[in-house]
Amino acid sequence: MNQLKEALETLKETGVRITPQRHAILEYLINSMSHPTADDIYKALEGKFPNMSVATVYNNLRVFREVGLVKELTYGDASARFDFVTSHHYHVICESCGKIVDFHYPGLNEVEQLASHVTGFKVNNHRMEVYGTCPECTSKEVH
Amino acid sequence: MNQLKEALETLKETGVRITPQRHAILEYLINSMSHPTADDIYKALEGKFPNMSVATVYNNLRVFREVGLVKELTYGDASARFDFVTSHHYHVICESCGKIVDFHYPGLNEVEQLASHVTGFKVNNHRMEVYGTCPECTSKEVH
DNA sequence: TAAACTAATTATAACAATTATAATTTAAGA
DNA sequence: TCTTAAATTATAATTGTTATAATTAGTTTA
Lengths: 143, 143
Known about the structure:
2 copies of one chain form a homodimer.
Chain A: H1 3-13, H2 20-31, H3 38-45, H4 54-66, E1 70-73, E2 81-84, E3 90-94, E4 100-103, H5 109-119, E5 122-133, H6 135-140
Parallel strand pairs in A: 3-5
Antiparallel strand pairs in A: 1-2, 3-4
Helix pairs in contact in A: 1-2, 3-4
Chain A binds a DNA duplex through residues 16-19, 21-22, 37-39, 51-56, 58-60, 62, 77, 79-80.
């Protein structure tokens, strides 16, 4: 349940130092359900850490990715978004406002197997995103 | 069958001028099965068009995307790749050398329906990529 | 607990991909 | 062929991200 505590343990186990900045970035990632960009995180924490550098945010997101705590999402032309890894899920993305909603669906393992069989690749993982318009943006549309 | 001819018709129908540069970019996209980046295209055509600007490549890829002739693929941190739209297919990507192989699989429409039902989104489309190691890179691996 | 070592942070510069701007050139219809 | 709007070019600007070097701060060991 306590995701932050578990995440900090992971860092300890993998020999990654726990700094106030890392603590804050992790906390923000876990609490925000908004799949923030590096800049979102930077801006959100500049009150707490007025001297923090953007490089710190990027560095630590890379570290978190390397130990498997976060995933980097790149879609379309915009900047990358970061997702604290919990259980396996996919994303539904609003093409109008950019909102990302999680979506659980268990049935894509067979696709990996088929892909491996057809292409001869050793398959590690896959990603899927569904694009559309969220209810809020749909209701705002002009008729 | 003649994809270039059809593509040029599409441009005519949508009122987009056919220039030598556009013709060449489309031709290159159709013939190359390699999902090129904008820079790949730029470099490939600089023999034919020594004065062509990168901006022209980007501009026209945007135009082609707008009329539905190409799709833009962004994955990982690298630069965008462009894919001439033919039939519906997915991509299997080698994490070692970056190669992209097409993979046909018909069964993901139900995912769209479920995603729409669960999230309330009006769903337009989806994308999926499978990641792994291609046979060539697998055989090169050290044991 | 203090000293020493190593890693993390900061500030800044560099970089690469992409887009914007303004001047020039060109495709396509009258 | 002439005209006009659109496309291309050359260049500058922008944005997201990474590299560098100096400083600061965790952690380990004496």
